[in-house]
């Protein structure tokens, strides 16, 4: 035994080592498998489950219907046209019934079977979950489809909304328009829930109320097989429509204002409730038809929209020289400063000379009070007032009544603050010092003074409502107004003067017994080398005003009393023919 044992021992050791090695290998392999299973099933199981779920489902977004825009009485100003589109479920194209189904669809859509095959091939490249066979089906096609719906198994009808402005260009600058989301802005807008080629408000109320109007997207969820072929619909979540927005606009008054402004090539009209600031009509000319943006403007339409007349520009919100309408501001400055009393007189002369320069006037009747100076629009009276007050007092009052700042209207991105030029402005932009000439011409609304028609409407509201600065608004809602603390004597003088403008002055065309007592002021602004601008601003009835009207005629030539005031007459007649004013 001792002889053979050493020979046998190495063999037993080798077997033992092999067993240990094999056991170790099995343990390691099982450990690796178990570790991998733990990695896949426990640590990352939810992630992989979600990935697999995603690979067998597809989401198709559904666009929301945009909210409507309504006038103050509920009349529709902007809505949506529902277009019916026909879709094919992809798996039915590969079925044995496709040839007969294709022939029936070809008859319904009045196209060739080959054309339907071509459309399916094109749709498969971009929308593999359902093929759009036809858009904007006719009423006859829609009725035929639903009458014979069993003959069209594998197809479905769906709707698409297109923005519609039923009155065409009427109120275009108030309503605005919508356009497609462009590729360059998509990276930003997609974080806010927008889709590529989604529709978004670009101007007017469509832009200002975008969040309310747009609604939220829905979706359809499909199950697909390994080849990406749709097997069934898993979920159909409808889109949430946007909210309707009621505006302060009065449709009938808006129509009259639009028609009145067609007498000139360019201009603006705004009508406002002097107590609340609610805008009853807003017109800018030239205008445009927002329906051209429902799809995309043609080249001819695009050239028109970008022409020299600037149809897209809302002139109600742009600054222009106010001319003699600014004399109201000069009167407020004179009486509120304490340098003039309501009964004081100032000289109206044929000409006024100062520091070697002379300025003419169309009237010369001696010393007159402020109401008569306003009625006859005597320039020389206000030249003298301006010099006595100084530009600081004039411009302080201009800012006090809201000139030089935005009004607070909802479409603020389109609104200019206007311009109240001062020595600093002149030095910066013209490199020249302020002179007496600047003060003299500013007192009558010329020179470096620009006012928007909307700002001017606020000024007339101040006189009409007893000294309150209102916030103009296009959406029915409570808004705040600010008391300016004007002296009763100042308001009385202004009301007396503006009424005399109609009874004995430059706006006598409005002294009509068929109208309530109208008060207002005309203006004719020089605009060399072009023709003059014509203005009228006023309110009625004089004893209890309920409507302020501003008319601006750009480069119309003529005078405010002969060009602009007759347009205001049309608006007052329309407004008061259905409202008692006695």
Question: What can you see in these coordinates?
Answer:
- Strands 2, 3, 4, 5 and 10 form a 5-stranded mixed β-sheet that branches.
- With 582 residues, the protein is α+β, with helices and mostly antiparallel strands.
- The chain is built from 21 helices and 23 strands.
- It has 2 domains: 59-111 and 130-246, Penicillin-binding protein 2a (Domain 2) (Alpha-Beta Complex); 251-285 and 314-576, DD-peptidase/beta-lactamase superfamily (Beta-lactamase), CATH 3.40.710.10.
- Mean pLDDT is 89; it is low at 50-54.
- GO terms for molecular function: beta-lactamase activity; penicillin binding; peptidoglycan L,D-transpeptidase activity; serine-type D-Ala-D-Ala carboxypeptidase activity.
- Residues 267-572 form the Penicillin-binding protein transpeptidase domain.
- Keywords: Antibiotic resistance, Cell inner membrane, Cell membrane, Cell shape, Cell wall biogenesis/degradation, Hydrolase, Membrane, Peptidoglycan synthesis, Plastid, Protease, Signal, Transmembrane, Transmembrane helix.
The gist of it:
The chain has 21 helices and 23 strands. The chain is an alpha+beta fold and 582 residues long.
Features:
penicillin binding, 2 domains, elongated, 5-stranded antiparallel sheet, 582 residues, alpha+beta, 5-stranded mixed sheet, membrane, 21% strand, Beta-lactamase, Penicillin-binding protein 2a (Domain 2), 39% helix, signal
The chain-level structural class is alpha+beta
Q: How many helix segments?
A: 21
Query: For this structure, what is the CATH homologous superfamily of the largest domain?
Result: DD-peptidase/beta-lactamase superfamily
Q: Poorly predicted ranges (pLDDT <50, ≥5 residues)?
A: 50-54
Q: At the third CATH level, what is the topology name of the largest domain?
A: Beta-lactamase
**Rg of Cα set:** 37 Å
The CA-CA distance between the termini, in Å, is: 143 Å
Task: Assign a percent range to the helix content.
Answer: 25-40%
- Record field, number of beta strands: 23
- CATH architecture grouping of the largest domain: 3-Layer(aba) Sandwich
- The CATH C-level name of the largest domain is Alpha Beta
Q: State the major sheet.
A: 5 strands, mixed
Mean of all residue-level pLDDT scores:
89
The fraction of residues assigned to DSSP E strands is: 15-25%
Q: How many domain units?
A: 2
Coarse shape = elongated
């Amino acid at each position: 035994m001792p002889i053979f044992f050493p020979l046998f021992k190495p063999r037993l050791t080798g077997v033992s080592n092999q067993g240990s090695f094999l056991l170790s290998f099995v343990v390691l392999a099982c450990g690796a498998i178990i570790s991998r299973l733990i990695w896949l099933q426990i640590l990352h199981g939810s992630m992989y489950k979600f990935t697999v779920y995603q690979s067998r489902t597809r989401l198709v977004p559904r666009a929301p219907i945009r909210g409507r825009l309504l006038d103050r009485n509920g009349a529709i100003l902007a809505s949506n046209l529902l277009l019916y589109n026909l879709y094919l479920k992809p798996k039915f194209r590969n079925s044995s019934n496709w040839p007969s189904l294709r022939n029936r669809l070809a008859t319904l859509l009045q196209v060739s079977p080959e054309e339907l095959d071509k459309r399916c091939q094109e749709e498969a490249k971009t929308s593999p979950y359902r093929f759009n066979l036809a858009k904007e089906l006719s009423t006859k096609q829609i009725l035929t489809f639903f009458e014979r719906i069993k003959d069209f198994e594998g197809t479905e009808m769906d709707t698409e909304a297109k923005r519609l402005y039923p009155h065409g260009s009427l109120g275009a600058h108030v309503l605005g328009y919508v356009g497609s989301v462009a590729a360059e802005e998509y990276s930003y807008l997609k974080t806010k829930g927008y889709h590529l080629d989604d529709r978004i408000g670009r101007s007017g109320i469509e832009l200002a109320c975008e969040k309310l109007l747009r609604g939220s997207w829905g979706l359809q969820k499909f199950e697909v097989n390994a080849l990406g072929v749709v097997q069934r619909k898993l979920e159909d979540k409808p889109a949430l429509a946007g909210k309707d927005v009621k505006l302060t606009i009065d449709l009938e008054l808006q129509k009259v204002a639009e028609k009145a402004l067609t007498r000139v090539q360019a201009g603006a009209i705004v009508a406002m409730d002097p107590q609340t600031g609610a805008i009853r009509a807003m017109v800018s000319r030239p205008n445009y038809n927002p329906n051209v943006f429902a799809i995309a403007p043609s080249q001819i339409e695009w050239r028109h929209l970008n022409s020299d007349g600037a149809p897209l520009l809302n002139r109600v919100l742009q600054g222009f020289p106010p001319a003699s309408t600014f004399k109201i501001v000069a009167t407020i400055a004179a009486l509120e400063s304490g340098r003039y009393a309501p009964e004081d007189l100032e000289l109206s002369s044929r000409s006024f000379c100062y520091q070697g320069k002379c300025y003419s006037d169309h009237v010369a009747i001696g010393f007159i009070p402020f109401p008569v100076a306003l009625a006859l629009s005597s320039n020389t009276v206000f030249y003298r007032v301006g010099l006595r007050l100084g530009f600081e007092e004039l411009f302080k009052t201009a800012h006090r009544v809201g000139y030089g700042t935005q009004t607070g209207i909802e479409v603020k991105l389109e609104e200019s603050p206007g311009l109240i030029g001062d020595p600093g402005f002149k030095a910066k932009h013209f490199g020249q010092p302020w002179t007496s000439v600047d003060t003299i011409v500013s007192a009558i609304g010329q020179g470096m003074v620009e006012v928007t028609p909307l700002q001017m409407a606020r000024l007339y509201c101040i006189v009409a409502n007893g000294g309150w600065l209102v916030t103009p608004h296009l959406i029915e809602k409570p808004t705040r107004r600010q008391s300016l603390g004007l002296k009763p004597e100042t308001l009385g003088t202004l009301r007396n003067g503006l009424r005399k403008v109609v009874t004995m002055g430059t706006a006598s065309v409005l002294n009509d017994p068929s109208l309530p007592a109208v008060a207002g002021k005309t203006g004719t602004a020089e605009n060399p080398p072009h023709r003059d601008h014509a203005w009228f601003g006023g309110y009625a009835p004089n004893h209890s005003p309920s409507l302020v009207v501003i008319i601006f005629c750009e480069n119309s030539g003529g005078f405010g009393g002969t060009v602009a005031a007759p347009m205001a007459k049309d608006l007052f007649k329309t407004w008061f023919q259905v409202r008692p004013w006695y």
